[in-house]
């Protein structure tokens, strides 16, 4: 592969000591960009998410499959001194180390930032936690559900007057994975230019707080807690879910011009001319009356008809889809949302692609490595680190290493 054909992170090695979602999501994105990612797992149970099923593809949990494409699996027991030495060697030879152990664990293992940096001054070392290194009480475990509650995200989600609700996916982990990947890339640019590494820290709580964006800024400006608006918008009307004759759609008339186009499609010029609805602040003030009239008008046709008419008029609109329906619709529309890989046990397998597209990162015609079996690459990685075949066999024999997915 020539330098012009190489992916952006070709030649970058990542030692992935993380598990579950935030860390593996970050390292998967780095793998998508061309990095060589070695996933370090326990030889008996592997990443926790290997057992988080159903659903399963063959014997592989869909949860694990969702965030571990493009990686190699090194299954070693870090409580074994020789196996731990191999992991330390991996970190010493890597450009990036990512870990989300409980506070204090990596230091006790001799794999903390200070330990790795002594042998590898240019390393970019990323620590991921629930509540950050300065948070009190120290060492508080972080789970998405807890962080959604503690960050205000849950309080801002749900129907008006109803109970707080969590987002349907572990969104604070996903946001943390994105933040981790961004901070790692920034530190890598600096390290490549100066040879100086960096310890970056990313937490679920700070990712959630920053992810609230305009909502939290509004609270800071007003000094008041935001209200819940369910499937509507606090400051834009109409911008919400509406029923039609057969299914729900979303209409997002985000400015006065779009609102007038909506009224024309609805054949309700009176709503466009009504001074109560002439501007967005006035529509917000008279939300209930306007929404009731738009809802009544939309019930007169099917969702398919309204989507076609509104799109033709340039009014932002979309169907409320199920998850599988959404993926299939995106693929049918040419978005290339999925990529096919050949998994060693599950066979042909569809995986979701990353949210970004770039020519240098490769297109859908370049499938990534499938998510690895537990220990699938242990022997190869250990050999690359300098261990002799006899030493690897001895580690396998005593259960310190899982080799080829079979212990």
UniProtKB/TrEMBL annotation:
What are the UniProt keywords, alphabetically? Transferase
Kindly give the InterPro entries that the UniProt entry links to this protein: CoA-transferase_III_domain, CoA-Trfase_fam_III, CoA-Trfase_III_dom3_sf, CoA-Trfase_III_dom_1_sf
> Is the keyword Disulfide bond assigned to this protein?
no
For whether the record's keyword set contains Hydrolase, the answer is no
Q: Mention any Pfam family matching this sequence.
A: CoA_transf_3
Which GO molecular function entries does the Swiss-Prot or TrEMBL record give?
Answer: CoA-transferase activity
Q: Which domain of life is it from?
A: Bacteria
Would you tell me the protein name for this molecule? Answer: Crotonobetainyl-CoA:carnitine CoA-transferase CaiB-like acyl-CoA transferase
What organism does the record attribute this protein to? Spinactinospora alkalitolerans
